[in-house]
Structure formats: C-alpha cells, structure tokens
Specification:
Structural class of chain B: mainly beta
Strand content of chain B: over 45%
Oligomer: heterodimer
Strand order of the largest sheet of chain B: 4-3-7-1-2-6-5
Largest sheet of chain A: 3 strands, mixed
Largest interface: A-B, 24 and 29 residues
CATH topology of chain B: Elongation Factor Tu (Ef-tu), domain 3
Strand order of the largest sheet of chain A: 2-3-4
Number of helices of chain B: 1
Mean pLDDT of chain A: 83
Largest sheet of chain B: 7 strands, antiparallel
Low-confidence stretches of chain A: none
Shape of chain A: globular
Low-confidence stretches of chain B: none
Mean pLDDT of chain B: 93
C-alpha cells in the first residue's frame, strides 16, 4: 500500500515537473545586455582596478557570454560600435569558436581604437593590433 | 487553465526581420496545439535555457510555389533584440508556445 502511494506521488511530481517550462531569459534582458555593451566606452572583461571591483558592463558581457550562441557574437562582430566588435572577438576567442578565424581575418585590419581594461591594466590600441597580438600569442 | 504549460509546438522553417518595422518573423507550421496573439514563443538558447518572446501577431501565409499554408509569427523588438534574434539563425527547429512568459 505504502509502495503504491509512493509511486503515485512520484508520478504526480514527475507530471508536474514535466509541465513546467525551462528557465528562460526574456527579450528585455537581451536588450539590456547589448545596450550596456554598446554604451560602454571601454572593453572591460574582468573586475576593475586592483581590488577587481565588479562592473555592470563586464557583468552584461558575462551574462551574454553564457546565453548567446557563437552566431550572435559573429553578428555582433559586424556592429558599428568598435567596443561591441571587440567584445564579440573576446567572446569568440574565449569560447574557442570555430568562427574565430573568419572574425580575426576581418578584424585584423580594423583601425578603430578601443580601450581595454582588465584588472589594473589599461591599454588603448586599434582592434586590428589587439586581434593580431592575441592571434600571435595563440598560434 | 495552467498557463505555463506548453500549448503548442511550432516548426520554424526560417526567420527574418524587417528593421524598419522593428519586427522579427518566424515562418513555419504548427505541429500540435494552438497559438494566439500575446502568448509566448520559447526559442532554445542552450540545453538549459530558453529565450521567451511575446507574440505580437499570428498570420496565415500562402506561397506561390507551394499549396501548403504556413504560419507567420510576428514578434516586436528593438534593434538590439532583432540583431540578437537574427544572430540566433532560428530555422529548421521546433519552438514551443506557452500562454505565460516574460517580456
């Protein structure tokens, strides 16, 4: 009898869980993350400063990194905003994406200047220079 | 009615956007259940996460080259959302429809 009740409860629980939809992200969040990147004047991929303080742009980048497939980053690598192009490259590089080569070959001649901040390091150079330097380091 | 349950399954053939209208479109066919304006479409982002989008309108579409009728799901979005959705290259995949979701 007890075994029967347990099986029944398990069945009900499975049915209820099966009905629930998966965790979801909404379009407003996507909008917020991309706007955050677009409005940033610098590429911030980690904590800022000696203490590694969190930064809203870095948080938006990290959130987008978790949800956006490579194809979204490839599209963002065509953005008119240099900072967004650089974030797109960073994302594809971090994900070791098969699309990375195509993006590198396009961005290595990109002359737009971006300021990159990681920890207490701040560097300003052209996207092409950064991409080429990272590529040399990788291969 | 349990509104977060899956109400339908829609097979997407192709997706596209019209930037001037701020609209993103999914063209395909309902495979089961139903779909209505203001319900939500769930597009799979990865194994554990969906993107939910509110359906602005649903239209029936006929092709010159095909006797089948197709369904067009219209979703409204800002430029950034349209870019993201286009970047997802939604096509040849099944999406689910629910009554409830988040904008």
């Amino acid at each position: 009898m007890r075994c029967g009740s347990f099986t029944y409860c398990l069945f009900i629980l499975t049915a209820l869980l099966g009905c629930r939809s998966k965790p979801a992200v909404n379009s407003a969040a996507i909008h917020h993350y991309i706007i955050e990147l677009e409005h940033s004047s610098r590429v911030i991929t980690g904590g800022v400063g000696f203490t590694g303080k969190d930064n809203p742009t870095a948080d938006a980048y990290k959130s987008l990194l978790q949800i956006a497939p490579d194809s979204v980053w490839v599209r963002l690598s065509h953005s008119e905003k240099p900072v967004v192009r650089m974030y797109a490259f960073e994302a594809l590089y971090n994900k070791n994406s098969p699309d990375l080569e195509e993006v590198i070959s396009r961005l290595k001649t990109d002359t737009a200047a971006v300021c990159e901040i990681s920890g207490d390091m701040k560097t300003t150079s052209s996207i092409g220079q950064i991409v080429s330097a990272i590529r040399r380091k990788k291969y | 009615m349990i509104t977060n349950q899956i109400q339908g399954r829609f097979e997407v053939i192709e997706s596209f956007a019209v930037a001037a209208r701020n609209e993103f479109y999914l063209i395909g066919q309902m495979k089961e259940g139903e779909i209505q304006e203001n319900w939500f479409v769930h597009i799979k982002l990865n194994a554990s996460l969906d993107l939910t989008l509110r359906i602005k309108a649903v239209e029936e579409v006929e092709m010159a080259s095909d006797r089948h009728k197709y369904t067009l799901i219209i979703i409204e979005g800002e430029k950034e959302e349209l870019d993201f959705m286009l970047g997802m290259r939604v096509g040849s995949e099944m999406v689910t429809i629910t009554i409830e979701g988040e904008d």
